[in-house]
Design a protein that fits this description.
Layout: E1 3-4, E2 7-8, H1 9-28, H2 42-45, H3 57-61, H4 77-135, H5 139-152, H6 156-188, H7 194-222, H8 230-251, H9 258-283, H10 297-327, H11 331-344, H12 349-367, H13 371-405, H14 415-431, H15 434-440, H16 444-469, H17 471-497, H18 502-524
Antiparallel strand pairs: 1-2
Helix pairs in contact: 1-4, 4-6, 4-7, 4-8, 4-9, 4-10, 4-11, 4-12, 4-13, 5-6, 5-7, 5-10, 5-12, 6-7, 7-9, 8-9, 10-11, 10-16, 10-17, 11-14, 11-17, 12-13, 13-14, 13-18, 14-17, 15-17, 16-17
Length: 525
Amino acid sequence: MNVTCGIPRNDRHGIRPVERKIISTISQSGAGSAAKGDQGDEMRDAGAKDIDDFSDPKLARFPAASVAPTNMVLPHKEDTGRGLGYASIFALLVYIGGAGLTSLAQLLIARIVGSTSYGIYSYVLAWTSVLAYLATLGFHVSLLRFVSAYSAKGRLDLVHGVIRFALQRSLAAATLFGIVGAALIFFFSDPSHKELQISQLLGMAAVPLVTAYALGATLVRAFGGGVSALLPERIVRDGLLLTLLGMAGLSGSWTPNAPLVMQAVLASSAITVGLVFVMATKFQPPGLRQVQPGDESREWWSAVPPMMLMAGLDVFISRAGVMVLGWTHHIREAGIFALGLNVALLVSLSLVAVSTMFAPTAAALHARGDRLALQQLFSRAALLSSGGALTMAIPMLAIIEPLLSWFGGDFSTAAPVARILILGYVFVALCGPQMLLLMMTGNEWAAAATMIVGAAASIIGCATGIALYGAPGAAVGLALALAIWNVAMSIYISKRLKIIPGLIFALTSFRTHAVEGQRRHWFLR
């Protein structure tokens, strides 16, 4: 059987048409319904001349403005919402599979190395993640916006140009961060803490690899392979990590400590990079490599400062508890907090899955100036993320203590941490994909400003909580920081974009439809 990217050939060709169908449905559903709807409908009038025919699978991924028919219409809200729902469920299934592998990997790591070494591993991985996502210069998100906008105009030259620009600058930054970080560790770390020092050096070596597969996955998503982009990072990477650690544990010839885990992370990340770029090559539009790359570097550079800041702060906020505990030399507590955090993050899977399909669609709707459709899409995304988070959170709150006891006696104390963080991430899911909404509408600096508020709140909250209650206090501080951050974004979005919170819009729309239904019923009587 021929295999590409770790996916059987038959399955790969089965996934790609489904993904094209999903993206086409989200972005351009309702294309043939001009005669059925009200010609005065606001959603369908705004920018109708810019809509392209997606009957061709190639055009579904990279529409050309020159072939756009004049009678095309924007999607009905029901079609857009239904497409987002199907796509999000499809993505969520992949995330659930990946989360299962991640949970198994974390269980194996915790049981093999113990709480102290697990704390070292978690602390090092937090720093690796922050530096790697800073090194993306924000292109792991902004590439979605640029590629979507340029491809909608048929500008393959600019698509080629921005990809080349992003890869060259980001990988150079990642390499620089890794080298400088390794030098600082080598010269200034305490040599008596050999396990921590070696783990940190391995973490710096992994920085360019994490940056590379983050950018590669973004390219696959931008080319229309939304679900395929999840497979290398969520399935292959953690599956390889699980396999390598299992083999090391069974062999008995390896010392079970944090450096062993970081070596496995390094190996699995390297293989993931290769797979994700092979997939990006498979999904790229025909003729992309042959076209001369265009240049709008001034615009691309202008997006770097806010997006880079957001990339680092996004990872930092979620890992603030682990990093503050590590800074204050509470390594064992950092491991306990990290395990509780990893369990709580399962609740956020629904939001991440919805965001995977929300981002390119939101960018396209904003480019057309269709605020009503964008409001409806955001509302549906908030409903989907909220429903998924609540469905997962309720049983997890009940079983969290026996679940964590499987990780060993030390880790059973992580149950209060996990419960607090679960509630925090439920609140985030109720707010919907606000950060992506800001970034896909060109409000990067506003998003960065709200993230600075969130990061400051997380540092203050975690530091205060640790001083008072240890790891559970850090969880309270992080949960409050998440709430402050999301409330700040909601206020800005309402005032600047005139888009109200998704759940509030859904509730008011439901009540309006209910009143209209009652009126029609009264008239018929």
